[in-house]
Amino acid sequence: MIAFCPTCGAKCEQRVPDRDDHMRAVCTACERVHYENPKIVVGSVATYEGRVLLCKRAIEPRLGFWTMPAGFMENGETTAEGARREAREEAGVEIEVGTLLGVYELTHVRQVMLVYRATLPGPELNPGVESLEARLFEPSEIPWDELAFPTVKWSLQYHAQVGSAETYPVHSNPGDERLPSSAPEGSSS
Predict the structure, then answer these.
(1) Residue 46: what are its φ and ψ, rounded to 5°?
(2) Same domain, 84 and 19
C-alpha cells in the first residue's frame, strides 16, 4: 500500500476516486491517484535430455525449497528475455525459450506468472547467489514434497502431461489452490 505520494511526498489516503470503482492511494495534497497493479513473474521449465532443471532457493520466501528458475520481470525486457535472465541468474545457464506453457493468475499475492518451456544447451550448471544448488532431475526424481510454490508443481505436472507435443493449450490455475498471502510467489530478482 502506498503511504506517501511519490510525486510530492504528502500522505496518501485510501479512497475510491471519482469515476473509479476501486480503492486507490490518493495524495491528500496534489490529489494524484496512484495505481497498484499486479507484478509479472516469468519462469521456465527447462530441460536437458529429458531431465528438468530445478534450483534450491537461497532466499526467502521458501528458503531451501526447490523451484524452477523464475522471478519478477524487469523494465525493458520481454517475458522471454526475463525467463532467460532468471535462468542465467539462478542456475548460470543460457536457455533456449520455447512456447508458453502456463499462465497463472495469483490474485491473492497480486501476481501473474508466465511459464515457458525451454531447453538447455548442456548439463553444466553454475548456481547464482539466489540458489543454494541447481540440479537436473529425472522426472521420477522430482522432490514433489519439497517444491517451493504451487505454480512449480502445476508447471512440472503440465509439462509432463503435454510431453513432447508441439501444440497444446496454455495451462492455467487448476482449482483454487493458493498460497497464504504472506508468502509471495516470485523471488526478489
Answers:
(1) -100, 135
(2) no
Residue 172 lies in a domain: no
For residue 117 the three cell numbers come to 518451456
Q: Are 58 and 24 within one domain? A: no
pLDDT band with cut points at 50, 70 and 90 for residue 176: low
Predicted structure pTM score: 0.86
Give the model's pLDDT for residue 180: 41
Kindly report, residue by residue over 73-110, the tens digit of the pLDDT.
999 999 999 999 999 999 999 999 999 999 999 999 99
Three-class SS string for 61-119? CCCCCEECCEEECCCCCCHHHHHHHHHHHHHCCCCEEEEEEEEEEEHHHCEEEEEEEEE
In a domain, 58, yes or no: yes
Peptide bond into 61 cis (omega under 30): yes
C-alpha cell at 132: 543454494
- Residues 26, 44 within the same domain: no
Number of structural domains, the chain? Answer: 2
Supply φ then ψ for residue 104, to 5 degrees. Answer: -115, 120
Cell of 68: 524452477
User: Which of 68, 62, 60 is closest to 41 using CA atoms?
Assistant: 68
Residue linked to cell 511519490: 6
Report the alpha-carbon distance of residue 49 to residue 20 in Å, rounded: 52
pLDDT above 90 covers what percent of the chain?
A: 90
Q: Is 184 within the bounds of a domain?
A: no
